[in-house]
Write a structure and sequence with these properties.
Layout: E1 3-7, E2 14-18, E3 20-21, E4 24-25, E5 32-39, E6 45-49, E7 51-52, E8 60-64, E9 74-83, E10 89-92, E11 98-103
Parallel strand pairs: 1-11
Antiparallel strand pairs: 2-8, 3-4, 5-6, 5-9, 7-8, 9-10, 9-11
Length: 107
Amino acid sequence: MATLTIKRNDLARQIEDALKLDGAAIDLTGASVSIVLRNRTTETVIKRAATILSPATAGLVEYQFVSGDTVVAGSYDLEWEIVFPDTRHLTVPDNSYHTLNILADLG
């Protein structure tokens, strides 16, 4: 996932991603994962818990938007923060950001 575009106030979309490091799936067994969104204009940050999909060894995660996430139209940087059972942190992607574009709706 490099870029995702949705409309303002849409909550029926979810984000799925395969978290990898150096091309290999990250084993998320026992870990917790958060999605972090930063509005590129206002620099407001949203951080929410994500769901690790089974099997955790595949590095698959998903996030279901909730009320308030998609209220402000604009471009957002998106990254995933992983906390492993031994409390080490890893941020993915590690060399850039994914992009979330929230477009203004017509209504």
